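Hi everyone, sorry if this is the wrong subforum. Our group has a chain we'd like a structural model of before ordering constructs, and none of us has done structure prediction before. Sequence below.
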Amino acid sequence: MTNLNEIKITPRDQQVLRLLVQGCSNKEIAAQLEISPRTVKQHLRTLSCGGNQGRAQTRETGDCHVTEGADGIMPPRTD
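Answer:
Right subforum, don't worry. Here is the predicted structure as tokens:
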């Protein structure tokens, strides 16, 4: 397990995470930070892979840790 004190994230990653915790959708985060939804996804991917320490590895392998059965279809969100 990764120690939270060892995770290095950018100020923008922190902004994205803060808005996500507040319950904002990717589109809402993108609008508030004036970035594209695709860029929001990139920040979320970075965060889910352990911050900057996971970036070099994901470039090489093309993905972060994937659990078995992760290739299934995720059902749409119902709000």
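For your construct planning: DSSP finds four helices and no strands in the chain. The first helix runs from residue 11 to 21.
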